[in-house]
Specification:
Blueprint lengths: L16 E5 L5 H8 L7 E5 L20 E7 L5 H5 L1 H17 L5 E4 L3 E4 L2 E13 L2 E11 L20 H5 L5 H22 L1 H10 L7 E6 L2 E10 L5 E5 L2 E5 L3 E3 L1
Helix pairs in contact: 3-5, 3-6, 5-6
């Protein structure tokens, strides 16, 4: 199916650089290598990755035609503030999917760093940082999107949400370069909002697009599982569950439905 015309007419955001590479081991590794030499926030897009990875070192399947990019920057932020960029990236992805497909209702944001399409995982976000003098010296925001092809069930861990592709679920065909041309200005808008007004409006926008808000979910951590009703995210980005023993704010976990 031919994709609808892309609805964004925004120019590439001022102050952001772009590097498109035919092949790398991973865009996150490339970002780490280049972090000391960048002059400003830089998007690194790879058309092929030989060693892609996701959260906690897990492998990330990246067939040809899918999107793999990392935004690397030197923000000079404290670690908790840097972590909020996961929500900025998620909102930018949501807006980009809407621009590509002309539809918002199939998409939802899964805490802490996934985007869902018709209930399946279409995109993931990975943050990595390095400290410098007590602050975050550089921050890398890795984004993988199943634009053309989704991994098979055998390629994802047991219990994970089914992977889906944008093309198969919506019929929208878009190249990685076209996707980045939409994603970069969307990210810059939310980044500016966060820097100007703080986390509150970003938090509100994220909650309006949240998957399973008000429903029971399970947070899986190394210390054990916690099941409760997904009540909100707090002012620092923690997921807040209402459990049988009271409200519980959780800073890091895998969320299962």
């Amino acid at each position: 199916m031919q994709r609808p015309p892309l609805s964004s007419t925004e120019a590439w955001p001022a102050g952001y650089d772009r590097l498109v590479l035919p092949s790398v081991d991973s865009t996150m590794a490339e970002a780490a290598r280049r972090a000391g030499s960048i002059s400003g926030p830089t998007w690194i897009l790879a058309l092929h990755q030989s060693d892609a990875r996701g959260r906690r070192g897990r492998a990330w399947a990246n067939p040809a035609g899918n999107f793999a990019a990392t935004l690397v920057m030197r923000p000079q932020l404290e670690a908790p503030d840097a972590a909020l960029r996961s929500f900025v990236a998620a909102l930018a992805l949501f807006d980009t999917f809407v621009a590509v497909t002309g539809r918002a209702e199939p998409f939802a944001l899964k805490w802490p760093n996934d985007v869902l399409l018709n209930g399946g995982k279409v995109a993931g976000i990975l943050l990595e940082s390095a400290a410098q003098g007590g602050d975050v010296g550089f921050l890398s925001i890795g984004i993988g999107v199943n634009l053309a092809t989704a991994p098979s069930a055998a390629q994802v861990e047991e219990g994970a949400l089914r992977p889906v592709s944008l093309l198969a679920e919506t019929g929208a065909a878009v190249t990685p370069e076209e996707f980045l041309d939409l994603l970069a200005p969307a990210y810059a808008r939310y980044e500016s909002q966060l820097a100007t007004y703080g986390f509150a409006p970003v938090r509100e926008a994220w909650l309006a697009r949240a998957a399973r808000l008000g429903q029971r979910v399970t947070a899986r951590m190394a210390s054990g599982d916690v099941t409760g009703t997904f009540e909100t995210i707090d002012a620092t980005g923690n997921i807040v569950l209402s459990t049988s023993t009271g409200r519980r704010a959780i800073p890091a976990a895998d969320i299962h439905f």
